[in-house]
Amino acid sequence: MSAIRRLPELIVNRIAAGEVIERPAAAVKELVENALDARATRIEVILAGGGIARIEIIDNGIGIPSDELPLAIERHATSKLRDETLVEIPTLGFRGEALPSIGAAAKLTLISRPPHQPEAARIRVAGGAVSDIAPSPGLPGTTAIVEDLFYATPARRKFLRSPRAEGEAAERAVWRLALSAPHVAFRLVADERVLFDVPVQDERARISALFGREAAASLIPLTAEREGVMLQGFIGPAALNRATGALQSFVVNGRPVQDPVLKLALRLAYREVIPAGRYPVAALTLTIPPDAVDVNVHPAKTELRFADQNGIRALVIGAIGRALATPVSLDLAPIATLPSMPQRQPHFSFRAPPPPSAPARGFAEAELGFHAPPQARLPQAPPETSYRDHPLGAPLGQILDTYILAQASDGALVIVDQHAAHERLTEEKLRAAFREGAVPSQPLLVPVVVDFTPLDAERLLAEAPLLARLGLEIEAFGPGAIMVRSAPAALKNPDAAGLLRDLAEDFAESGAALSLEARLDAALARLACHRSIRAGRKLAYEEMDSLLRDMEATPRAATCAHGRPTFLRLSESDLEKLFGRRA
Ligand code: ADP
Ligand code: MG
Fold first, then answer.
1. Is 271 buried (19+), middle (13-18) or exposed (0-12) by CB count in 10 A?
2. Which one of 211, 231, 320, 460 counts the least CB within 10 Å of its CB?
3. Among 31, 33, 37, 145, which is best to mutate for testing ligand 1, by the most ligand atoms less than 8 A from CB?
């Protein structure tokens, strides 16, 4: 054994680089944060080769005086931290680690000019070796250029993903920072494509620009306060859910974060209104007294520690719950003014259907899996005779291409969510087939190859035997890729790639800890969802009728696989209450 010695600064910096800038996205984040700390009003980010080849960040901030350039790239050298207790940290940076870490692992060039300095100066660090300071042409502000990330630390370089995946992560980092600072103009260019170019704007306009107009149009504003903590932002209605959390942004005291406490609170707030494995859309901003949150938990500063986690969670869940319950349409206003309706929301009663009285029938294999119609035209008279034995009654029609209206034999109005209902029926049918052996499978005309992260591919392949019993046959196809050979026969024209991606997300979300049973449930629910008729599809009368009849014959048809009701029943007395005829 040799004697204990201090590690040389270069090694220390390389070790730090592993934590502070573990991938291009992290380097981009640190550099943009520096530009924001320098009070820039305009920041341009130019990426090449996913940020592995080159990152260039141009700001018009306060700059670095030429004689301070060597210090800027020194470890633990910062112009920012004033409060030695690490409580009051008004800037994004404070650890003085980013520039030396980047300089130790890559080739870093800083060109900077404070506004009063007549010209810019330049400094270079490559693999930790500093080159002399030289005058350079340059506008007021700072340009940071990073080339060949991790060329000096091959151990780290090996773990980089494809330029495309790294590029996406870097772009998302800029996206998050741009959301956190609408008062700064941002331009993002990747491999010569302009991804966004947004002026100084207000928060709502920034969110519209970065979430896309479709999502932005339906966002619901929200504000709430609890014990000195302010929450404000915008959330999407449940229907706006996405396959990933990509349209979620959290900002705490001006700092974009990816904090597990906040992510979980958001998920819980939507748990009952969106399917498992789907993600709500939200842009949330929290303002917390600095002594109630610790930002110095991780070198990358994307996680926080809240003094009062439960309080934060309650604030987020409560505010979202209220915002989602606010009727979006003014059409409901008359109800609110009724004396007997103290609440702004009409409360319907959710009732389980009476036990099925119709004889159980198999699920027909017609295109949509419906039975042949008992009659093909809308009934003209109340359906007392032919529908007496059918608790869900006779279809009256369809509204919004999503809900079936029916009249029950006791006169009650039945409203069926066609997608939720069909999803449940499909799931029960697949489950029955699974119990009996295996779900019939059909080879794809052309096998489909789907790319995943190696991790997701592993996870899916581990479930291959289970999926095969569900009629979905997959096999490895090179690193990170999976080939789909066949799909359940019940899925006509399956979107095999989409199905597999969704399944990967389901398995990733739930983790390996799940029992076989739970993984089976997840897979069944996902297959059912892919096979089921969509909301927004027009149904013929006979399709509506056979859907109702199948529901009556299927156990557990009153709720969908995600626990939401598949139908509502408004009895005569419910209607009387809604219209204020009765207290
Ligand atoms: P930190 O941001 O934690 O202070 P960094 O290593 O990121 O540490 O930066 C070191 C110092 O270099 C900063 O404190 C700041 O004084 C200076 N600096 C870095 N980037 C910029 C920039 N874009 N504009 C002005 N000054 C900068
Ligand atoms: Mg910094």
1. middle
2. 231
3. 37
